[in-house]
Amino acid sequence: MPQLDPVSIVVNLIVLVIASYFIQRDAKPRQAHPLLWIMAMFVVSSTFLFQPVALIMISIIASLYITFRPKGKLGSCPRCGERYLERMASCPHCGKDTKKECPHCRTMVPWHESKCPKCGGRV
Ligand SMILES: [Zn+2]
Ligand SMILES: [Zn+2]
User: Fold this and answer.
1) Which residue from 40, 49, 90, 108 could staple onto 99, CB 3.0 to 4.6 Å apart?
2) What is the CA(112)–ligand 1 centre distance, in A?
3) Rounded to an integer, what distance in angstroms lies between the CA atom of residue 28 and that of residue 15?
4) Which ligand is nearest to the Cα of residue 104, counting in written order?
5) Is 85 helix (H, G, I), strand (E, B) or coil?
6) pLDDT reading at 21 higher than 70
7) How far apart are CA 39 and CA 35, in angstroms?
């Protein structure tokens, strides 16, 4: 049974809180399930009894998150102003459409455009 080192536990918890904050903030606009990643970090930390080795596991999970999160340009939602991935058709914050369909050629056009970039028709 390894000794519980209070300093390691405190350092681990601080790193967990900071990492959770950043993942939560980064994952929301991308709809990347922040809770799953944060829970994985907590489970790994407690599995390793908040020993220094748990910090290495947390960095590995954080790198996995960065590698596998949905990538793309973030824009501001035209409805609520929150950040979201520009290629998404609806905003993860307010749930409203961020794109509209061109009535002429059925292309998805960004909400703020008044002309279809494909056929030039009014949308
Ligand atoms: Zn929105
Ligand atoms: Zn069109």
Assistant:
1) 108
2) 13
3) 20
4) 2
5) strand
6) yes
7) 6
